[in-house]
Amino acid sequence: MRVVLAQPRGFCAGVVRAIDIVERALEKYGSPVYVRHEIVHNRHVVEKLKGKGAIFVEELDEVPQGARTVFSAHGVPLSVVEQAKTRGLPVLDATCPLVSKVHMQGKRYASRGRTLILIGHAGHPEVEGTMGQVGAPVHLVSTEADVEKLDIPTDTPAAYVTQTTLSVDDTKGVIAALKKRFSDITGPDTSDICYATQHRQSAVRDLCKVSDVILVVGAANSSNSNRLREIGVEEGLPSYLIADGDELDPKWVEGVATVGLTAGASAPEELIQSVISALRRLGDVEVSTMDGIVENIEFRLPAELRTPATATV
Is 126 annotated in the active site? Predict the structure, then answer.
């Protein structure tokens, strides 16, 4: 059996930064460090950080007074920021810089008097954070049909922003519908779309050309991982989302010559290797990596974590 790895795959710079923030906070300040929501959508990552002393909570009222607190990579509403200030919680913000950029774009459009429309999935933490950051009403759409249902006059000055885990391909139909409906609408350039989302989706499309089945490593609640699996299905291949090698069903690869393997932006490389190990238990495996974009983007840590922890005696 051939196993072809997508390039790029797995961790993006925003995820690396978020995990680094929790780990460095634990090193510098000691445990516990409280994290609001999953730092990223991956159970293995969360469990590993728990083992190092991180405590994950759903809401800030679960955090003891004055305890060091981290906001997840998905971002939070302004109401949560204000609650942390009121509670006197020292906060480290692990919001992905590309998500923060969407927040700033939304605020800028709203400050110019434009009605803001967000393209995204209802209930996703990033969407809830963005809608709560703008400080003005935000209309959420996820499909072209949603655009038609908007109760906004067509001559209203409008603007749109998008959830970062959606690619250019994911949003182009909705954007076209918005531009068709509204006579005065603007939005960010397509170059502002999250690079990691676009790269991973393009890579899985290329992977489909040389594979018989697609395996995507990622969490069931990971938006970008689910989208990678959907692309495999759209390309006509049997495609499966699995958390790790333990979830591999041998029937999926029975008689298969080439397995295409990729991972969502919040899945660590060790989980990809666990799937390869599971495949090797079924027979001989030859592993190769597709040509593709090599990402070298890094996001800076908060200033207080850039200096190493002071040794204590």
Answer: yes
